[in-house]
Design brief:
about 100 residues, mainly beta, globular, Lipocalin, 10 strands, four-stranded antiparallel beta sheet, about 0% helix
Length: about 100
């Protein structure tokens, strides 16, 4: 489902998935209750991470047009989480507007 031709755009309680080759919206995934999502990172085709305005990193399972919350890391930073990126060996790096970068 998720591949290099897709762009994930975070928003308020949602993530929009765009096909960059065909310039069309594929779907909008609901993440109700999460508020403003600032960053998205795919772990694999069914699991993604989000970073949000309230300093939480959440792990989600994609289930159709919804996200099922698997786990969350409270107070991952001291301010909103601006960036999440998957690096080698499955590690995740997050960056925040608190001027910190953390490896997970």
């Amino acid at each position: 489902m998720i591949n290099k031709d897709l762009l994930l755009i975070p928003g308020y309680n949602k993530i929009s998935i765009i096909n960059v080759n065909e310039y069309n919206l594929i779907r909008i995934i609901d993440s109700s209750g999460s508020g403003w999502i600032y960053s998205v990172c795919m772990l694999n085709e069914n699991i993604l991470l989000t970073g949000d305005y309230n300093e939480i990193i959440r792990q989600w399972k994609i289930e159709g047009y919804n996200l099922l919350l698997i786990s969350q890391k409270e107070k991952a930073h001291n301010y909103d989480i601006s960036y999440l990126i998957k690096i080698g060996n499955g590690h995740i790096t997050s960056a925040s507007n608190d001027n910190t970068i953390k490896n997970w």
